[in-house]
Amino acid sequence: MERTLIIVKPDGVQRGLTGEIIRRFEARGLRIIGMKFILMSRALAEKHYAVHIGKPFFPALVDYITSGPIVVIALEGTNAVQCARNTIGATKPHEALAGTIRGDLALEIGRNLVHGSDSVDNGKLEVDNFFAQDELVQWARSTDGWIFEAR
Ligand code: DAT
Ligand code: MG
Fold first, then answer.
1. Is the overall model pTM greater than 0.70, yes or no?
2. CB distance 102 to ligand 1 below 6 Å
3. What's the pLDDT score for residue 150?
């Protein structure tokens, strides 16, 4: 099943929005298979955001994501990557639609609360960057049949 990596960024944790953010993904129907509360090292931040190395905002991005504790969540579900991105909303909060996490709860791009993988391949890679195999739980939810249509 498709996987995506979600991060409640330091502003989400500091603002007490961790539960509200996780609630939206749970309510969407995505299945949690891993979750932990960590500080991201600069090395991991530079790996996670490697695609942005050299851009003017890169130093501030690394400072921000390493500035305090985060919650990292691995989710599984049908079209998990695109569904989670839609729940998160556009990168720039002033462009994010109302009803999305960023559209409801954020104002600025450098404080946009949450990360979600941007492709199916990156979903797999990012889950593996943040979780060891024994930190991921394979489980069947009692509600799976009401969320995933058996085919
Ligand atoms: P997203 O987080 O929506 O996947 P991204 O991968 O393009 O967006 O960029 C990662 C983060 O970097 C983004 O959440 C905020 C920051 N960022 C991206 N573009 C930026 C810009 N033009 N100015 C400032 N920060 C930016
Ligand atoms: Mg991205």
1. yes
2. no
3. 85
Give the CATH number of the domain where residue 100 resides: 3.30.70.141
CA–CA gap between residue 57 and residue 59 (Å, rounded):
6
- Known catalytic residue: 115? yes
| Pocket lining: 4 vs ligand 1, CB cutoff 6 Å | no
| C-alpha 144: how far from chain center | 21
Which atom number of ligand 1 is nearest to the Cα of residue 109? Answer: 15
Residue 52 within any structural domain of the chain: no
Q: Does any domain span residue 128?
A: yes
- CB of 111 within 6 A of ligand 1: the answer is no
Q: Which residue numbers in the chain have pLDDT < 70?
A: 151
The number of folded domains in the chain is 1
